[in-house]
Design a protein that fits this description.
The protein is of the alpha+beta class and about 600 residues long. Helix content is about 30%, strand content about 20%. It has three domains: about 200 residues, Phosphoenolpyruvate Carboxykinase, domain 1 (3-Layer(aba) Sandwich); about 270 residues, Phosphoenolpyruvate Carboxykinase, domain 3; about 80 residues, Phosphoenolpyruvate Carboxykinase, domain 2 (Beta Complex). Strands 1, 4, 5, 6, 7, 8, 9 and 10 form an eight-stranded mixed β-sheet that branches. Strands 14-12-13-25-29-26 form a six-stranded mixed β-sheet, sandwiched between helices. The relative contact order is 0.12. The mean pLDDT is about 95.
Length: about 600
């Protein structure tokens, strides 16, 4: 037992019941302190699970089991009373059935291990938007990662008090140890025994068998999105898969932006953007999740509920994301990267030439030309947000920052222009509800297939997505004239020869500038059937060597290409059946009418 006093009887009873079921050798209440972190890291390094990096102070490399490298969407469940409540985008199991299955797995699952109790706050402690969770786990890797990704420890227990509510999160790697049995470096269960289960009606999360990422750090996607999205629907707020950033113009006026992109669409890069336009400044508030409530002034206010970044390493470089690279100099947990001979990490896409030799993420010798990559494509870094040089001074403001702009986007080689402004709120919700990306090599399956990922929330919405669309419409009704403006971007347009048309990275600030100036009525626009587009002279391209033909193609509206999209949009909406909001059906009908009338 930790030295601090726990007054919350419900918490103490839940911990007692869990210990009886999981049968650990000992129970440790986490205090969130440096000594606790250092001791657990040292324990894992001594056991062969982690390697201390000579080149980066207080930084460590862990390598997972090859069966445990990413979120397991096919083993992720939403347990609601009826299948219709979970909707077509979720895997559904009846709550009683799922609990029976998992209780059998949990029985004795922590034998030979320590059961850690992690009290944590999602959001600044005491914020009116924050929530308290408690994760029980048998993984010291999870404890150390939660230290970075959330606010852990005694202050959370104090804030919880005797009567406070918490979200119970139970996790086990699912690998009990018999007496005298030696542990493995990365314990986990076989794939058919992995479960990431959510019970939205009870605000309850049960995870079993995986020690990796969002399967095990239950504050992340499980609480912050799947459970929080259901809570937000019931309580009238928003839990979104969105970055939050501040943009400041040369006159000092601040704009706050929340943006949602599917995977491989540059979300983290945009969150840490270094502008190429003189006088403009960008600062990071969050790079993955946004919780938003309507404040006393009637505006939507957002916090980043996390306290760290859990970023994809491959492809991260000084060119793609200098702020991320500057964040990784010390105090980092790396997972599934390669280990260089001089004691550093390496991944594909990193700055400079590849090392002549390295140990790959599976512990094998690697050299340039090897058939397999040195780092796993989903290799990660876990680092405190405070280490980012671009972190905003207000990133932990308890009341949050007022959101001015929402951005949705996807990866499309054609059809979708560089930037589109919605006609109004309902049209903006339509843009979010129909967001799509072409698959990349990072996603299993055929490359280049168009996949709809509404609001970038398909794997993360904890209830029927049609009801989620309605919630967005309802929030717009409540916000009225104070609702943020909605835009859609596509950084990934290609020429017929397959070359990128837009330079991206820091030059994306030119598009953000147009959005901010649209709010002030200072930038021009032209109306098309899909929304407002910039004219060719409306984007600030000063200092950018940029072929005029590229700009024409980027801002092009192709009526025939959009008409060809309609059947796919109809199929997409049809999956939601009678629950699809009539207002979205109306938006689709109005788009068809505008396309038919268009004379371009």
């Amino acid at each position: 037992m930790s030295s601090y006093e726990v007054k919350n009887l419900k918490l103490k009873e839940w911990v007692r019941e869990t210990a009886e079921m999981c049968k650990p050798d000992r129970v440790h209440w986490c205090d969130g302190g440096k000594q606790e972190y250092d001791q657990l890291i040292a324990q894992m390094v001594a056991g062969g699970a982690g390697v201390a990096l000579k080149k980066r102070p207080n930084s460590y490399l862990f390598s997972s089991d090859p069966s445990d490298v990413a979120r397991t969407e096919e083993r992720t469940y939403i347990a609601t009373a009826t299948e219709d409540e979970a909707g077509p985008t979720n895997n559904w199991v009846a709550p009683d059935e799922l609990k029976r299955t998992m209780e059998a797995l949990y029985d004795g699952c922590m034998k030979g291990r320590t059961m850690y109790v992690i009290p944590f706050s999602m959001g600044p402690i005491g914020s009116p938007i924050a929530k308290i969770g408690v994760e029980i786990t048998d993984s010291p890797y999870v404890v150390c990662s939660m230290h970075v990704m959330t606010r852990v420890g005694t202050k959370v227990i104090e804030a919880l008090g005797a009567e406070g509510k918490f979200i119970p999160c139970l996790h086990s790697v699912g690998a009990p140890l018999a007496n005298g049995q030696k542990d493995v470096a990365w314990p986990c269960a076989p794939m058919d025994k992995k479960y990431v289960s959510h019970f939205p009606a009870e605000n309850l999360i049960w995870s079993f068998g995986s020690g990796y990422g969002g399967n095990a750090l239950l504050g992340k996607k499980c609480l912050a999105l799947r459970i929080a999205s259901a809570m937000a629907k019931r309580e009238g707020w928003m839990a979104e898969h969105m970055l939050i950033m501040r943009v400041t113009n040369p006159a000092g006026k601040q704009y706050h932006i929340a943006a949602a992109f599917p995977s491989a669409c540059g979300k983290t890069n945009l969150a840490m953007l270094v502008p190429t336009i003189p006088g403009w400044k960008c600062e990071t508030i969050g790079e993955d999740i946004s919780w938003m409530k309507i404040g006393p002034d009637g505006r939507l206010r957002a916090i980043n509920p996390e306290s760290g970044f859990f970023g994809v390493a491959p492809g991260t470089s000084t060119r793609s994301n200098p702020m991320a690279m500057a964040s990784l100099k010390e105090n980092v947990i790396f997972t599934n990267c390669a280990l260089t001979d001089d004691g550093d990490v390496w991944w594909e896409g990193m700055d400079g030439a590849p090392p002549a030799h390295a140990i790959d993420w599976q512990g094998r010798d690697w050299s340039p030309g090897s058939k397999e990559p040195a780092a796993h494509p989903n290799a990660r870094f876990t680092v405190a947000a405070t280490q980012c040089p671009a972190i905003c001074s207000d990133w932990e403001k308890p009341e949050g920052v007022p959101i001015d702009i929402f951005i949705f986007g996807g990866r499309r080689s054609g059809v979708v222009p560089l930037v589109t402004e919605s006609l109004d709120w309902d049209h903006g919700v339509f843009l979010g509800a129909t967001a799509a990306s072409e698959t990349t090599a990072a996603i299993v399956g055929e490359v280049g297939v168009l996949r709809r990922d509404p609001f970038a929330m398909t794997p993360f919405c904890g209830y029927n997505m049609a009801d989620y669309f309605q919630h967005w419409l309802d929030m717009g009704d409540r916000l009225g004239k104070k609702a943020p403006r909605i835009f859609y971007v596509n950084w990934f347009r290609k020429s017929p020869e397959g070359k990128w048309l837009w330079p991206g990275f820091g030059d994306n600030s030119r598009v953000l500038k147009w959005m901010c100036e649209r709010l002030e009525g200072k930038a021009g626009r032209r109306q098309t059937p899909i929304g407002y587009l910039p004219g060719e002279n409306d984007l600030d391209l000063r200092g950018l060597e940029f072929p005029s033909q590229n700009l024409k193609e980027l801002l092009k509206f192709d009526s025939d290409a959009w008409k060809a999209e309609i059947s796919d949009l109809e199929r997409h909406f049809a999956q939601f059946g009678r629950r699809l909001p009539q207002r979205l059906k109306k938006q689709l009908g109005e788009l068809v009418t505008r396309l038919e009338k268009f004379q371009g």
